[in-house]
Design a protein that fits this description.
The complex is a heterodimer. Chain A is 35% helix and 17% strand. Chain A has six helices and five strands, in the order E-E-H-E-E-E-H-H-H-H-H. A five-stranded mixed sheet of chain A has the order 2-1-5-3-4. Chain B is of the alpha+beta class. Chain B folds into three domains: 150 residues, Aldehyde oxidase/xanthine dehydrogenase, molybdopterin binding domain (Aldehyde Oxidoreductase, domain 4, 2-Layer Sandwich), CATH 3.30.365; 180 residues, Aldehyde Oxidoreductase, domain 3, CATH 3.90.1170.50; 326 residues, Aldehyde oxidase/xanthine dehydrogenase, molybdopterin binding domain (Aldehyde Oxidoreductase, domain 4, 2-Layer Sandwich), CATH 3.30.365.10. Chain B has 20 helices and 28 strands. A seven-stranded mixed sheet of chain B has the order 3-5-1-12-9-10-11, sandwiched between helices. Chain B has a five-stranded mixed sheet with strand order 7-15-14-13-8, sandwiched between helices. The radius of gyration of chain B is 27 Å and the shape is globular. The chains are: A alpha+beta, B alpha+beta. Chains A and B meet through helix 2, helix 3, helix 4, helix 5 and helix 6 of A and helix 1 and helix 17 of B.
């Protein structure tokens, strides 16, 4: 397969890469760049474990070809953490018991981060809607909503 | 009630692995890779039941990038069970890593290892198989009929324990246990209710799909990182399947993305091990979500029949419970899940006449296995609906009926002697039991007495329902856990244990137990768990055993270490042992002089008569103290569409001391939502050929945030004297309540009893319309 050139900014860092045209954004992140915080739970856009932020919007990285991201900016869970500090959502997830097995956590936090970027003071209903594409089998969701609500309340 | 003072126990300590998980740094199995790693894929059967007449792999082997192809001809024929239980397993050895017969749609046919996943998938298409398609058993009710096709007609399947196993009848197991005389009990009764129920097959749906990665270490030993709940059982089963000694195998469990019983099965480890041993190369195998749905394990579908009888005043005189259990084509957990239908149901009642029986049958549907709730879910479905019915017929509020009949603490439970999984020594009894308090607290919180029996009129009707449930805490005399603790020169400790963190929080809870004994903050305990080379043995994460049993092992090891610390401290303080004590990380002498753990650790490791302050401890359990719970739900039923909406759910739980209230609540909530989702939406849809037609989240359907009702979780005060700091289990119990509670609430709303789960709009609507037609 003939490779294509991809210019992409990931977590603030510019990359120019030669990639297969059928490479998914998820594979670019996990396999090529070893950013394994983004998880694969279903591969068909139903579980949200691979959620990343593409140009400010939460997307499923399993449904997007890396080539579609040419000239665009991607933020993953690894890019959310500051140099010294956790993102408030990461801290809130830890504090509220919103992390159990942690497999859905990165995607869940990225969906929540995209929400808070667009709407810093969401209602509980907004929160539930924003993370409705992120499945979790461990927590029962309540603690996750509480964690996001706590960050929103601080805004 | 005893209310001891704790430092680190009963505190919402942050999860010790939470930080790495929240920043995405923690590595799960699929996040590991090895240089030169191959990728493995299984060719799966398109037929529910077939014999492989011929299989040709030449074209697949010739595909560039394919490194190895295996069929049944290339592997030793060794009967195994994938059940991941203790040894000897109570499940039949009825599976082969590759066989000349397939027994369900999705069963393994051939194994391919290739340089990439894509090449492996391409190679699967090039394998040519001639099948002799056989008639299939697609209904458990027909499995034991005289003309039924025999699923295990091979001569080499067997079970390693002395219990009935009749593959020639498609019967995996039989259970029959009783106390008293049910017939006599029914004679004494004023009212008897008999009914039949059926629960559906279900997927655990852990977000992380099963994955395993293997390689040879520098000494040629086989190392496997895998998504397992049972690393030590995995090692033993790989040893058997591949005919290599246990000493040549190391299993490592990294972070694990949820299990719920589904990762107790040894599904991938033998395959990656086989490839690595034959090729010398690392290999990874990862199931797709579709493969998880069709080929990993599911909850046992059962048809349950129950008879309950009571006197006029509501006193129970007899319970007779029967379960026909569909274990699928392999008998993993067949016997034990079936016996738990009785074990997790009957002991709750002060009823002198009890009978439980079960037939466990093979079918060519999905392979059933361990699933959170483990038989309790199925048993409570039947008994709690029948008792709701019985109470109503007696003119009693079910809450009052339960309060009259449920056991209190310190009760002997003779039925457990008949149903136990292991040897029962002495008369089994239940120590702590606050079930009555759970019923009262839950009823109060939801406003049971005020709201029940008031459905209102019109299209939307409201209803209230309740259920009670129990689980266990470990398998007595069978399960064993152990732990090892050592001090470091800065006064921190390493806690090494076999106990298996799968997301439930065991690393944290067990560190808290060690910290409590050693009087340090939990973050001074460095946890490393579940590596068969480096940590001592533990049966693993199942049977709700970890907090209770592994917790006692950790507590014992910590007590031994504490004694050594006191000895060194007494020496440093030049005080007699009897006059020193450990408090807040210091050994304090009679004159209030003290030395820190750092001084003690440094002294022991570097200064004088050096030695490693360390200890290990092992524990078995002598009983399995049940946690108890009462569930209450208010629903709204749309009579026009059949849709059931949960308005409010209250669960009251007795799980002994809460080691970590935040994590305990997480267990109770997670189990509850899984249970409600199971009751309302989740199901497998099979074609007439036995193929699962909805192997994805979209059509299988599990709850998301939009589906979550208002929930209140209450923990009633309780203390289990045999548990670590008074604790018993909390991981499984709350999954079992929603099926009957919601069914009973639907009855309260629209006057129809639903017997078959899930309670989807089509079933509810059909029942409502049938009732209207009379």
């Amino acid at each position: 397969m003939k490779k294509i050139t991809l210019k992409i900014t990931i977590n603030g860092r510019k990359h120019t890469l030669r990639i297969d045209p059928n490479l998914r954004l998820l594979d670019l992140l996990r396999d090529e760049l070893r950013l394994t915080g983004t998880k694969e739970g279903c591969g068909i856009g139903e579980c949200g474990a691979c959620t990343v932020i593409l140009d400010g919007r939460a997307v499923n990285a399993c449904l997007i070809l890396a080539g579609q991201c040419n000239g665009r900016e991607v933020v993953t869970i690894e890019g959310l953490t500051g140099k010294d500090d956790l993102h408030p959502l990461q801290q809130a997830f830890i504090d509220h018991g919103a992390v159990q097995c942690g497999f859905c956590t990165p995607g869940m936090i990225m969906s929540a981060a995209a929400l808070l970027d667009q709407n810093p003071t969401p209602t509980e209903e907004d929160i539930r809607e924003a993370i409705s594409g992120n499945l979790c089998r461990c927590t029962g969701y309540t603690q996750i909503v509480e964690a996001i609500q706590a960050v929103a309340d601080d805004n | 009630m005893k209310k001891p003072k704790f430092n680190e126990i009963n505190k919402g300590v942050r999860k010790v692995d939470g930080l790495g998980l929240a920043v995405g740094q923690s590595r799960f199995t699929d996040d590991y890779e090895m240089p030169g790693m191959l990728h493995a894929k299984l060719l799966r059967s398109p037929y529910a039941h077939a014999r492989i007449k011929a299989i040709r792999t030449g074209k697949a082997r010739a595909l560039p990038g394919v490194v190895a192809v295996f069929t049944y001809k290339d592997v030793d024929r060794i009967p195994i069970t994938t059940a991941g239980q203790g040894y000897p397993e109570p499940s039949p050895y009825d599976e082969f890593i590759l066989d000349n017969k397939v027994r369900f749609v999705g069963d393994k046919v051939a194994l391919v290892a290739a340089e990439t996943v894509e090449i492996a998938e391409e190679a699967l298409k090039l394998i040519e198989v001639d099948y002799e398609v056989l008639p299939a058993v697609l209904d458990p009710r027909k499995a034991m009929q005289a003309n039924a096709p025999i699923i295990h007609d091979e001569k080499d399947c067997y079970i390693d324990i002395p219990v009935p196993y009749e593959p020639e009848k498609n019967r995996v197991a039989r259970v029959d246990a009783s106390v008293g005389d049910v017939k006599e009990g029914v004679k004494q009764a004023a009212m008897t209710v008999e009914d039949e129920f059926e629960n559906q097959t279900a997927s655990h749906s852990a977000l992380e799909p099963h994955c395993a990665l293997s390689w040879l270490d520098d000494n040629g030993r086989l190392v496997i990182i895998s998504t397992t709940q049972v690393p030590f059982h995995a090692r033993r089963i790989v040893s058997r399947a591949l005919k290599i000694p246990v000493r040549r195998i190391r299993i490592i469990k990294p972070r694990l993305g949820g299990g719920f019983g589904g990762k107790q099965e040894i599904l991938l480890e033998p395959y990656v091990g086989l490839i690595t041993l034959r090729t010398g190369r690392p290999v990874k195998m990862r199931l797709t979500r579709r493969e998880v749905f069709i080929s990993a394990r599911v909850r046992h579908n059962m048809i349950t029949k129950v008879q309950v009888a009571a006197k006029k005043d509501g006193e129970l005189t007899a319970i007779d419970l029967y379960a026909l259990s569909n274990t699928g084509p392999y008998g993993t957990h067949g016997l034990t899940v079936a016996s738990n239908v009785g074990t997790r149901t009957l002991p709750m009642f002060k009823c002198p006449n009890l009978h439980f029986s079960s037939d466990v049958v093979y079918t060519n549907l999905s392979v059933s296995g361990a699933y959170r709730g483990y038989g309790g879910t199925q048993g409570i479905l039947a008994t709690a609906i029948a008792m709701d019915d019985l109470a109503e017929r007696l003119g009693m509020d079910p809450m009052d009926f339960y309060l009259k009949n449920v056991i209190r603490g310190g009760t002997e439970v003779p039925i457990l002697k008949e149903l136990g999984e292991g040897p029962v020594i002495g008369q089994p009894h239940i120590g702590s039991c606050e079930l009555a308090a759970c019923i009262k607290a839950g009823a109060e919180a939801i406003g049971w007495k005020k709201k029940r029996g008031r459905p209102g009129g019109g299209r939307f009707r409201r209803g209230m329902g309740m259920s009670i449930m129990m689980q266990g805490s470990s398998i007595p005399y069978i399960d064993m856990a152990s732990a090892f603790i050592k001090i470091n020169d800065d006064g921190s400790f390493n806690l090494l244990m076999g106990a298996t963190e799968i997301g439930q929080g065991s690393d944290t809870v067990l560190a808290q137990i060690a910290a409590e004994v050693l009087t340090v903050a939990t973050d001074k305990i460095i946890v490393y768990s579940s590596d068969t080379d480096l940590t001592p043995f533990d049966v693993g994460a199942y049977a709700s055993s970890t907090t209770y049993l592994s917790g006692m092992a950790v507590k014992d090891a910590a007590e031994k270490v504490k004694r050594q610390i006191l000895e060194v401290g007494a020496h440093l303080l030049q005080a007699p042992m009897a006059r020193v004590h450990l408090s807040k990380g210091r050994v304090i002498g009679p004159d209030k002089k003290s030395v820190t753990l750092q001084q003690i650790g440094t002294h022991a490791l570097y200064e004088e008569d050096q030695f490693q302050i360390s200890a290990s401890a092992s524990r078995i359990s002598h009983e399995s103290p049940p946690p108890f719970a009462a569930h209450f739900v208010e629903v709204e039923v749309d009579r026009a569409t059949g849709k059931v909406r949960i308005l409010e759910y209250v669960q009251a739980v007795d799980c002994g001391t809460l080691i970590n209230p935040v994590l305990a609540r997480g267990q109770a909530l997670g189990a509850l939502i899984n249970g409600i989702s199971y009751a309302l939406v989740e199901r497998y849809i099979y074609s007439s050929r036995g193929e699962c037609l909805n192997p994805n989240y979209g059509y299988y359907n599990i709850f998301c945030t939009r589906d979550i009702p208002k929930i209140t979780t209450i923990f009633v005060p309780s203390y289990e004297p045999t548990g670590p700091f008074g604790a018993k289990s909390v991981g499984e119990i709350c999954i079992s309540g929603p099926l009957p509670a919601i069914s009973n609430a639907i009855y309260d709303a629209v006057d129809v009893r639903l017997h078959r789960t899930p309670f989807t709009p089509d079933k509810v609507l059909e029942a409502v319309q049938a009732r209207e037609r009379g």
